[in-house]
Amino acid sequence: MSALLSAAAAVAPVAAGWSVHSACLRRRLERARRDPLTGLPTRAEFECRAARLLEQRACAVVVVDLDGFKAVNDTFGHAAGDAALRAAGGRLAIWTDSLRGCAARLGGDEFAATVPMPGHLPNALLALHRSLCAPVTFEGRTLPLGASVGALPVAELPVTDLSAALRRADEAMYAAKQGGGGTWLASGAAPLMQTVNGRRDGRNGSSPAGGERS
């Protein structure tokens, strides 16, 4: 019996150490799947989750770009810009979570989301836009923030494809931005802008995408 107790006592620290190591490893893996600034999933993680949602077809893909973000950075500094990005990421996460969707920061001040189709998509997009445009408080100062939101119902595509949906939603976002911000709902599957290396041409100008302001 004493031998068994001694063996158990020797194994216990090893087991405890392995549990701690496993927990640390899980935390590191989870952090690797998250954008360090906003806490949103990385693009790769988002694409995995979005692909599963797109299998349902009854969903929408959304692209968001912040308006006036460069002015916030230039006027108030990069720390203020980071605060604006964190706030935008948090607001987008709340919106997507309420619809049981997923969101990501694609890079810079550009975000994306995929959500099951809400009862009335234009109203849902307007609610998201209002949330994103609420001022951000940073170190006692009020930071103005705007957003352009574009979306595409996946049912508009003949074949379920996340890249194609993101491209059309990106075009819709750009149309909203060309109109001074707000929301824009894309219609039809065919892209209406030329691409360069698979990316939309005309980020600094060009004609807007077809669709309708929501």
Tell me the radius of gyration.
22 Å
Question: With helices defined by DSSP (H or I, 4 residues minimum), what is the helix count?
Answer: 6
Give average pLDDT, whole number.
82
Helix content: 40-55%
Overview of the molecule:
The protein is an alpha+beta fold. The protein contains 6 helices and 10 strands. The strands form 3 sheets. A 6-stranded mixed sheet has the order 2-3-1-6-7-10, sandwiched between helices.
Q: Which descriptors would you attach to this protein?
A:
214 residues, alpha+beta, 10 strands
Brief synopsis:
The protein is α+β, with helices and mostly antiparallel strands and 214 residues long. It has helices at 2-32, 43-54, 69-76, 78-98, 121-132, 162-178; strands spanning 59-67, 102-107, 110-116, 136-138, 141-143, 146-153, 182-186, 195-196, 199-200, 211-213.
Which secondary structure elements does this structure contain, and how are they paired or packed?
Elements: H1 2-32, H2 43-54, E1 59-67, H3 69-76, H4 78-98, E2 102-107, E3 110-116, H5 121-132, E4 136-138, E5 141-143, E6 146-153, H6 162-178, E7 182-186, E8 195-196, E9 199-200, E10 211-213
Parallel strand pairs: 6-7
Antiparallel strand pairs: 1-3, 1-6, 2-3, 4-5, 7-10, 8-9
Helix pairs in contact: 3-4, 4-5
